Amino acid sequence: xxxxxxxxxxxxxxxxxxxxxxxxxxxxxxxxxxxxxxxxxxxxxxxxxxxxxxxxxxxxxxxxxxxxxxxxxxxxxxxxxxxxxxxxxxxxxxxxxxxxxxxxxxxxxxxxxxxxxxxxxxxxxxxxxxxxxxxxxxxxxxxxxxxxxxxxxxxxxxxxxxxxxxxxxxxxxxxxxxxxxxxxxxxxxxxxxxxxxxxxxxxxxxxxxxxxxxxxxxxxxxxxxxxxxxxxxxxxxxxxxxxxxxxxxxxxxxxxxxxxxxxxxxxxxxxxxxxxxxxxxxxxxxxxxxxxxxxxxxxxxxxxxxxxxxxxxxxxxxxxxxxxxxxxxxxxxxxxxxxxxxxxxxxxxxxxxxxxxxxxxxxxxxxxxxxxxxxxxxxxxxxxxxxxxxxxxxxxxxxxxxxxxxxxxxxxxxxxxxxxxxxxxxx
Amino acid sequence: xxxxxxxxxxxxxxxxxxxxxxxxxxxxxxxxxxxxxxxxxxxxxxxxxxxxxxxxxxxxxxxxxxxxxxxxxxxxxxxxxxxxxxxxxxxxxxxxxxxxxxxxxxxxxxxxxxxxxxxxxxxxxxxxxxxxxxxxxxxxxxxxxxxxxxxxxxxxxxxxxxxxxxxxxxxxxxxxxxxxxxxxxxxxxxxxxxxxxxxxxxxxxxxxxxxxxxxxxxxxxxxxxxxxxxxxxxxxxxxxxxxxxxxxxxxxxxxxxxxxxxxxxxxxxxxxxxxxxxxxxxxxxxxxxxxxxxxxxxxxxxxxxxxxxxxxxxxxxxxxxxxxxxxxxxxxxxxxxxxxxxxxxxxxxxxxxxxxxxxxxxxxxxxxxxxxxxxxxxxxxxxxxxxxxxxxxxxxxxxxxxxxxxxxxxxxxxxxxxxxxxxxxxxxxxxxxxxxxxxxxxxxxxxxxxxxxxxxxxxxxxxxxxxxxxxxxxxxxxxxxxxxxxxxxxxxxxxxxxxxxxxxxxxxxxxxxxxxxxxxxxxxxxxxxxxxxx
Lengths: 427, 534
Known about the structure:
- The complex is a heterodimer of chains A (about 425) and B (about 525).
- With about 425 residues, chain A is α/β, with parallel strands linked by helices.
- In chain A, about 50% of the residues lie in helices and about 5% in strands.
- Chain A contains 22 helices and eight strands.
- Chain A is globular, with a radius of gyration of 22 Å.
- In chain B, helix 1 crosses helix 10 (about 355-370), helix 11 packs across helix 12 and helix 16 (about 470-485) runs antiparallel to helix 17.
- Chains A and B meet through helix 2 of A and helix 8, helix 12 and helix 18 of B.
């Protein structure tokens, strides 16, 4: 008998129950995609025999990880698929894929001429040209670049007073906060400062998720190594790494070791999302949040796929429900279809919209004041497809926060109670 | 009913199948009779090692020289059955490194290209190998799919006019004085007994040839040596790994199709037990312990099943294990040996040398028939084995082959062109683990003497994957019912198939294999509602 019979080959734990395929959003709409079971554990046996059995159609995997969330045997199915793409794909990423994957490069290039870029990218003629020349679907709406980024706002308006706080966090703002949605970073700073926590920036690079999706493995691994080394310095100083985008945080915690083979074990447990970080502080009595009495909103919460994978949506739910005037509806757990850069691509556009259809219908029927969601690309997809505004939960919290009352509540000595019970809950 | 042939061959293992093909290619009217399905005996119960001959180089040079010759022939005529993986003979710290020099010298003398390589190079070549090795020799070993090889020989025999009877048992030899004139055959499926006549009858019954010979009034002393093997759920190694020492237990790890196989043990068993072999717990332990010395990863790799077979060795001396009996070919002309005319026995030998055995037997048949016909099997590819590698063949048929199409080509070679799925249904999967589509299953049922799900498994690999029939068995039973028009029979067949799969899983029923079987049971009894009803 084998004493340690838990296979070192994780895919062998698959007992072929096929629940992963039942939960795969892509299989349901795209017959060319073999699905997580066939492309993952089943295909891996064939690929181990001969790499010729690799199926390029695995590129249709959105890496939403819903298969892994569904799997009762703990098989890392999407990791198997992406590792196979990394090892065996002979298709090289084209210009389109490189442009879509270069979130930080494109952001920096577009910023000085942001109004022009935004205007150009909204033009029908340009969209038609992109569709024909670059296979970026003409129906896709592009997120707007901001002329002033988050970091320059922070340096000018916030940095000076951060040292004054006794507790500090390192903020991983991510590309979308820097280039498209600086208000998310501003909200983060507002909330953190109100509860008495100072914010420090990191010398961060894009987390690399878009490069993983587009097959730019070497670039993604380079970013991963850079970020991990920067995080190590922060962690050495006792700072947790807190972010606002569920996808960035998920990528840096799990994709770095599992797909890119970059060791993040020293820092992984310190990488967290602001909702979890804040909830744990509130829950353990270390900080207090006081909200405006007149804040009213009917909010629908869409849980992004990577948030499902992290298993942290309960933190967001609990925090938003702390706001007295909020009525929160949690939408059915389903993928919006965007999956980062996936939905931009012409070959994926119709599948992307078909995948999101259920979600869009539910939002339209509910007609909330706005949708709450931690992921920026879900935001772009839902806003484009439903016409509803989507806000990051930290923006909602910042809007609803009674800043003066919160500062006062946290200044009181009672707030400094309770030790670090935060360790008790770990993803 | 009376039917005349030039030759009757008894035994649908690889030897009988090869002989049937050889005789048919020489233009003879051939009858092949098999009491179960083809490849049910030792043919289907071995490593599937395409020997370079290195294993026998030191102890049995004649066998070694035969092996390397046949090895090179099979790489040409049975491309779709063979995987040219190459092999390693490794020396571990507890082995005598001096043996390596003797080994290499013997290999070279037998015509086997044996090359001493640096242990580090061996690890680069095969990363799963035990990293504590102190010596390595590279040899032209490979793997061969015995089911596919046997079925291809039968198919080609049929394409050249041979008649094949499966589930048909020879119950009596029809003799005229001291001459065998033919056989009485009981069809187990219909219960009918028929008589078949031919001037020559060939006993290719393997270990069961002992009993056949007795029935014909001659004595062939066989030495039943049981060997047990374990199948791991995927390929741990892509290069055959052997121990560089005198042949012993569990010292060969062969990558075969999607799995890898460790074996074997060797124990003499009573002749009466040959029909009912199973691996014992002690053998499983031995295989695991010794196997992990070749590739440590085996200690925690999922095992799909355990099985055992009986080597058809011919008695020579009092060797209690049978290890030292020659694997050499034994051709007996019973007219010369025992005075029984029209009857020959071809035995001994091994899977590797089946073609040579068939050639020798067919030559003897032709001598008896006074026919002058040359053997062409050494240069005539089997059906599906026309030139071109997997990729080239697949691309010739489909512009961009899917994984399923690639898998079909991997199994049937150039014959895949005739199995091209016509619609989505024909292209959909029966077996997901091995990627076997409906079109391949239907073609096997129609053309390859498939009478039950176990036969189908031997032709197509349906049910050989990780799930061991969990998902594919009921679908395959559906295709069988479609073909036969009998649902009740298909349901009974489904039950016996699932039980046959369980028989192999039982000796290794722990970990994920146990979870899988529990889940399978739940699917069949609770979801499909077949509990006690089939």
